[in-house]
Amino acid sequence: MNKLFGMLGLAKRAGKVSTGSFICLKAIRSRQAKLVILAHDASENTKKSISDSCAYYGVKYIEYSDMEDLGHATGGGDRAVVSVNDNNFAKAILDIFISCETEKG
């Protein structure tokens, strides 16, 4: 879990992250987003809007952690949605997520 947030923080410092549902939707629609991270405690409307857009535009998304932790990892307040706008960071974060899910078993 800490590795994923560490990588997300690194991507944020590199300027490869967008936060907030409106900005992330814009990144998805413009095909900048390579991976979208949704907080578990995001509203159902936000989850549906983001997941539908991701499905339509072919962007991978994961549900991970909560809004407070996502916001802390990206250097701001609570964030329901974060988009990673770089292929390498997206792949690294997805690999960490998959290995965490595999360990939970």
Question: Could you please describe the fold and organization of this structure?
Answer:
It is a single chain. By secondary structure, this protein is α+β, with helices and mostly antiparallel strands. It has helices spanning 2-13, 21-29, 44-57, 67-73, 87-104; strands at residues 17-19, 35-38, 60-63, 81-84. α1 packs antiparallel against α5.
Keywords, separated by commas or semicolons:
alpha+beta, 57% helix, single chain, 105 residues
Estimated radius of gyration: 12 Å
Number of helices: 5
Percent helix, as a range, is: 55-70%
Strand order of the largest sheet: 1-4-2-3
**Whole-number mean pLDDT:** 93
Low-pLDDT stretches: none
* N-to-C series of helices and strands: HEHEHEHEH
Question: Briefly, what is this?
Answer:
The protein is 57% helix and 14% strand. With 105 residues, the chain is an alpha+beta fold. The chain has a 4-stranded mixed beta sheet, sandwiched between helices.
Secondary-structure topology with pairs:
Elements: H1 2-13, E1 17-19, H2 21-29, E2 35-38, H3 44-57, E3 60-63, H4 67-73, E4 81-84, H5 87-104
Parallel strand pairs: 2-3
Antiparallel strand pairs: 1-4, 2-4
